[in-house]
Input
Amino acid sequence: MSGDIRQQLYDRIRESSKDEVILDEMIRLGYWRRGDGQPTLPEETIKRKGELDRELSELYRQQARWANPEAALKQMHKERKKAAMARRKETKLRQAETRHKRALAWAERRERDVLYLGADVSAGLSAGAPGKKLIGEAPEIASAKALADAIGIGLGELRFLAYNRALTRVSHYQRFRIPKKSGGERQISAPMPRLKRAQYWILDNILARVPIHPAAHGFAHGRSILTNAAPHVGRAVVINLDLKDFFPTLTWKRVKGKFLGLGYPEAVATVLALICTEPDVDEVELDGQRLYLSRGPRRLPQGAPTSPALTNLICWRLDRRLSGLAAKFGFTYTRYADDMTFSASGEAAAKASMLLNFVGEIVADEGFTVHPDKTRVMRAKNRQEVTGLVVNKRVGVPRDTLRRFRALLHQIEANGLEGKRWGAGGNVLQSAAGFARFVYMVDPEKGAPLLAQTEALAAKHSRQPRRRKTARTAFRARAAAGQAPLRRWSSAAIRPAPQPEPVLAQSMAAAQEADRVRDSASAGSSVPRVPAAARAGGHEPSSRECKAPGPVSRSPLVPLLVVLGLISVAAYGAATGMPFLGTGAILLAAAFAIHRSRRR
Output
């Protein structure tokens, strides 16, 4: 027996009595059963004696205490302080348990839901309302967890990509500027691979499966600037309008509203809109560290693969209203990104001024602005252009542009590549080959000889035009399938489980140590220990639980042989004239029977 267990027994005996402790242990170990029909007098007597001993000991202690009032008062203060400290400790422990349970529940919920993604954007994440009927063939996504599983990333990675940070050390976009055709510069925000992967999935699995308006020709499969210009060939009047700050006008709220309109729940629409938008960012240096400071609302970035498709979907109502207006006035309407074109012939051409007034009102009502410096009204006697193509008699490339391109090819053939340039590209042969293919797409008759000439020049200068790499295509295909584009693909770190506070950790360690000591004590005892649950529930131990090992467990024939032996001794005493033998044998038999009854 270890010292701790021995000290516990001494304390229990000191607080009650030895007989009561022995009785409790016999009941605990199964040697004395509770219940009706059993001998209860000794048990009640022992219990009552223990109660009286405790009361008497308490009276003695009180008498000794009040013999010295000052000492009694100090002892009372000490006991009250001890009780208050115990209650305080219990309160701290209870509060720590409550906080730990709350933290565990929160961590478990974080594994299932996205609950917060930054200020001003998280209001709809807790909405439990289901989505509406989906438009087109878009897949059904019931929650943010389902979206993460479909993309093939973890919920932590989805939270990392969609989080709206006011100040951060990480940027999901690489920003640079390119010159505009009309002057000035345009900022391009190219998403980093981890974000681009999620955007490709959204583009190919959601946006590409939703139909767009027939008047929209930009960034759509089977449509191009050629299909956008074809309806306006041979018209008496062609009107071109441009929407000012087209992409920045489409804010996060409008993008979220479009995903809601497609039928997705608000929590899913919020995450989708955050992945497809970004705020204006200022790069600052602080203590040698680069930080990104957000300013203004989130907008559609120029350079993200999802932005063009979203513009077509968001402008559905604008295209529908302008198409109806154009049809009412006898005009034809098409739109390529932010370029809108109207054309008409005959009497309808005289209504161009009236048409422009109504167009301005509808565009403003839809949240856009017509650029005042880019509105052009072109008559048939002048050159009419739509998205860079001439449409007076047929769709074609402007003659001056073709003349300059033919002159470039002639100079390269005569003088070589030195000092030659076409467009913004650095490699003149690649730029020339690209423009030749463009001319061939618009007008195969004029483009075929130009394409053959560029290939001959590339062969002459031993520089084959570089073919488009398939890496980008493979990246998009794997991303759309919900697969990691690379084997070693980085992802957000997994947040560890919440740890208990020190006071709770100490309590848990103490409880585990007590269980270990109790188990070791039960394992070291020669008598099997009755389970505490069975004792607390009034369960009667079975014969296997109550049976002690060794000599206690005898055969049922032993008592019968003992009684028969005593009867033989009594008969022998009566036959030989020694009656005391018979009397002693009878007394021994009675004592043995009483003992067996008590044992059972």
Observations:
- Residues 526-558 have pLDDT under 50 and may be disordered.
- The longest helix spans residues 69-110.
- DSSP finds 23 helices and eleven strands in the chain.
